[in-house]
């Protein structure tokens, strides 16, 4: 998988017209699509999506971008309230979605070091220590993108670009929690609920985290349209992995690992963002979100580990899945940050 080249912008999608063809279905009523798309056309979509996935797996940056852009657009059907009809529930679209998901899952699993999941200790607190050690020894931990680039070099324009890329997870963390908590009970549900209530500003609308995050957009004047156009393939992937894991009940344990690690890594990263913000003298209103999460997310991570991870880690199946989700987060975040390093990026 090529990670050095940063690919965004829809211009590179010309070899893969299937991305726009399927996208154009998404604001049509599901039943109408399913009645009008013939079996032959369905098979043709399937063939061309397989080809897109194969090219992506072989390292074609445009195919990887097209795959993740289409997946994110289809996920929009289940993560956003529509203004008109949508393809939500369409069998034709579901078939494409599943192909994209399977390829995305296979790519992440293909990046796991072989045998790593077998190395997890069985005792729950030892398991947690092992997870943290995995993270601390991973190149993503204290990555130079934050520790050097953001902290000491980034310009206001770099920060603007940075927050656009971060929107796919930070901009909807509350909805991710809401999706992943379905079916949980006891201490885990309570922990997710407390975390969610923090996301809701503990009842104060002006303190809702997504609202605070969006204040950055006001500083930088970023429109929703620019947002989609500017997202790189790896940023789209980060958001897609989060939705994928939070949405499927059989990936609940992976979501526990993925989101837990996201919270645990955030404080040190945000210290660097706040440092850059102060260094550049940008307006205070835009940095409230990051300042807040330096303390809130250390608390969230601790609560998550103690109340969600450790109790779940009694079972071997859960341990493997939590570790898998944790590693997906570490690995995908590392590739994303590598891509963002200025000397590697083809353009910024
Ligand atoms: Fe938050
Ligand atoms: Fe949090």
Structure description:
It is a single chain. The chain folds into 2 domains: 101 residues, no CATH class; 225 residues, Up-down Bundle (Heme Oxygenase, Chain A), CATH 1.20.910.10. With 348 residues, it is an all-alpha fold. The N terminus is likely disordered. The two termini are 21 Å apart. The longest helix has 29 residues. Bound molecules: fe (ii) ion (FE2) (2 copies). The site of one fe (ii) ion has 4 residues, from loops.
Give the full name of the CATH homologous superfamily of the largest domain. Answer: Heme oxygenase-like
Assigned CATH architecture of the largest domain: Up-down Bundle
Net shape:
globular
How large is the share of residues in beta strands? under 5%
Mean pLDDT level: 93
Helix content: over 70%
- Intertermini distance: 21 Å
Distinct ligands, ions and cofactors found in the model: fe (ii) ion
Main beta-sheet strand count, sense and barrel state: none
Quaternary organisation:
single chain
Along the chain, the helix and strand elements come as HHHHHHHHHHHHHHHH
Count of distinct structural domains:
2
Structural Rg: 20 Å
CATH fold label of the largest domain:
Heme Oxygenase, Chain A
Briefly note the structural class of the backbone. Answer: mainly alpha
InterPro entries: Haem_Oase-like_multi-hlx (IPR016084), PqqC-like (IPR039068)
Pfam families: Haem_oxygenas_2 (PF14518)
Organism: Streptomyces luteolus
Protein name: Iron-containing redox enzyme family protein
